[in-house]
Amino acid sequence: MALLQPTSLVFTVERQEPELIVPAKPTPHECKLLSDTDDQAGHRFQIRGLHIYRNNAFACRERTPLKEGPNRKLMVDCSGEGVLFIEGDADVTLEDFGDSLHPPFPCFKELLYELPASIDLLNSPLLQIQVTRFKCGGFIFAHRFNHNMSDAVGLIQFMSTMGEMARGAVAPSIPPVWERHLLNARDPPLITCAHLEYDHDKATTALKRSIPDNLRCSTFDILTACIWRCRTKALELGPDEDVRFICIVNSRSKFNPPLPLGYYGNALGYPAVETTAAKLCQNPLEYAIKLVKEAKGKVTEEYMKSTADLMVIRGRPNVNTVRSLILSDLSRARFREVDFGWGKAEFGGPASGEEVISFYIPSKNKEGKEGITVPVCLPAPLMDSFVKEINRKLKDDEATGG
């Protein structure tokens, strides 16, 4: 495990004027309702991501604005206006990034055009793309998309289809499936599961050796437990204050039958577990690991139906982020496999950690060594404490042979 520092690289991008890339043929003008699972307050933001390719350039397609109906219900206005697309040229090479082809990326604002209207979710594009060419012939494909429309699995499906078209395909290998009714609330809605995640009533190798042999767990379980404990210690909370871990889980395979292969809407569950700061920090790491595993195991078809019902009954609440760690494992999400004709990406995934969400992102250094990058956002003084806690944990395990 290594702690990564941002590079000091500074560069500028000369952008061309933004343009709208419209559909090649006329499309029906209609409004499509999003599902109640799509339409959560916690999805009403835009995620920024990018793909890095060591070669040449490319162009793209499609945009539609959101509309809001009765009871804050979101729908998509399929107007055929197109996707906002920007081209640019940077005055550096990808080699100038050194070992920093991972979040946080230097000068990210140069790589993705910031729209004045993007502060207002309902008036911003559902998809915005900027392709930046570098002096070495490589390019970065950066994008901003609306989370209400899709989760990571759906986004990869969409981008993979774009790649197929760029390579000459005339139809997607996996046809897109709308069918948002599959994740709507029941009639009448009925909350049947505990949902701590929406409850606002309350204000690597060395690590593996420290885990008892009878506790079966994944690398994700161990690293997440370690990050959760170290982050909680860095926050210096009162011993009796409640802390939460929220695990973002893809529920597609939890349904019987599973959701259609081409379903690209949100199918994410946000199961939570709760304990006190004292219990989390004073118990052995295996205590936190068991809680992480408990959260992951909560997502079932009934849980997802209960979540959709909760959205309708409680007015689409946000996930409770107070004293919460939210993690999403994208290590197997295949972002790097999106191919526009230049092969696999050197990096593919979120451009940064969000304020309250961290991601497990596959990455590699310039020697080609594969690993996982986990962006964590904290105020600077707390980040210093977090780094000290991580280093202390690793040194303690090495010293004890654990």
Automatic annotation (TrEMBL):
Membrane-crossing segments per the record: none
Key words, A-Z: Transferase
Alphabetical list of InterPro entries matching this protein: CAT-like_dom_sf, Plant_acyltransferase
Recorded GO MF terms: transferase activity
Keyword Transferase assigned: yes
Keyword Transferase listed: yes
Pfam families recorded: Transferase (PF02458)
Entry similarity comment: Belongs to the plant acyltransferase family.
PANTHER family: ACYL TRANSFERASE 4 (PTHR31147), OS05G0315700 PROTEIN (PTHR31147:SF66)
Name this protein carries in UniProt: Uncharacterized protein
